[in-house]
Amino acid sequence: GYTCANDVSARDLQQTDGQWGRAKGFDTFCPLGPWIETQIDLEDAAVTGMVNGELRQDGVLGDMVRGVPELVSWISSVMTLIPGDVILTGTPAGVGPLVAGDTVSVSIDGIGTLTNPVVDRV
């Protein structure tokens, strides 16, 4: 199935660590939803990212460098995929910094919209 993901990254840690494990691994850094859809046109579905109602990312699934079948094939050639595993396919151009108080929305035609607030770590 398919869903939306908000793939949050701590860019400062990506730069200092030299790899992305910690920068993408914090609690709350990969919300998913709003639900799983099994019937979707992977070529024509639009993918958008909005921050505070402003369009930041705008793409079409069919424009991805690697399609979903190719990604699943390659990943499963190097590791075992089991039910419940999640594969993120990448993001359209337009990523940028987020600050506490921002609201981020990720939408995919045929799936829906995932909206999350950005809050300071406590």
Throw out a few tags for this protein.
122 residues; alpha+beta; four-stranded antiparallel sheet
State the gist of this model.
This protein is α+β, with helices and mostly antiparallel strands and 122 residues long.
Structural account:
The structure is a single chain. The chain is α+β, with helices and mostly antiparallel strands and 122 residues long. Helices cover 18% and strands 29% of the residues. The strands form two sheets. It has a four-stranded antiparallel beta sheet with strand order 4-3-5-6, with no helix packed on it. A two-stranded antiparallel sheet has the order 1-2. The chain is globular and about 35 Å long.
List the helices and strands and how they pair.
Elements: E1 2-5, H1 11-17, H2 21-24, E2 32-37, E3 46-51, E4 54-60, H3 68-78, E5 103-108, E6 112-117
Antiparallel strand pairs: 1-2, 3-4, 3-5, 5-6
